[in-house]
Write a structure and sequence with these properties.
136 residues, mainly alpha, 0% strand
Length: 136
């Protein structure tokens, strides 16, 4: 048995739903004369079967569910656009944070280098003072 993709599943579900609906409608047409009195006295079994058939047909298409609020639903294309915008915003924030960190590190390295250079200069001058003729 082959597995189907999600897109195929939706298509197959719709086809099965359509097939079942056609069978339910055909059965309802067959039962109708038994529940409207054309075939004589109406029996409780036929009436119950017809009512259950109509309910099942309604369940097949979700007729008993409350109506969906169209304002609460977001189209897939809009969701994709929102996700792309969020990803782009996140990427921009990351790039800004990286640039800021690089600048801070460069400043710290420059300051440390300047301190090291100053200490080295002082050490050289101190050593020169010690080596000078007539020094200490």
């Amino acid at each position: 048995m082959d597995l189907v993709t999600y897109d195929d599943y939706d298509k197959i579900s719709q086809e099965v739903r359509r097939y079942c609906a056609q069978k339910y409608v055909a059965l309802a047409e067959t039962l109708l004369p038994y529940v409207n009195g054309d075939m004589g006295e109406i029996t409780p079994g036929h009436a119950a079967a017809y009512i259950n058939l109509v309910k099942e047909l309604g369940r097949l298409y979700g007729a008993q569910k409350p109506p969906r609020d169209p304002e609460a639903m977001i189209p897939a294309s809009k969701v994709q656009a929102l996700m792309a915008a969020a990803a782009q915003s996140t990427e921009q924030q990351i790039q800004a944070a990286v640039a800021e960190a690089e600048a801070r590190i460069r400043r710290e390295i420059a300051a440390q280098s300047a301190d090291d250079m100053e200490q080295a200069r002082k050490a050289v001058l101190s050593r020169l003072e010690q080596v000078k003729p007539g020094g200490v």
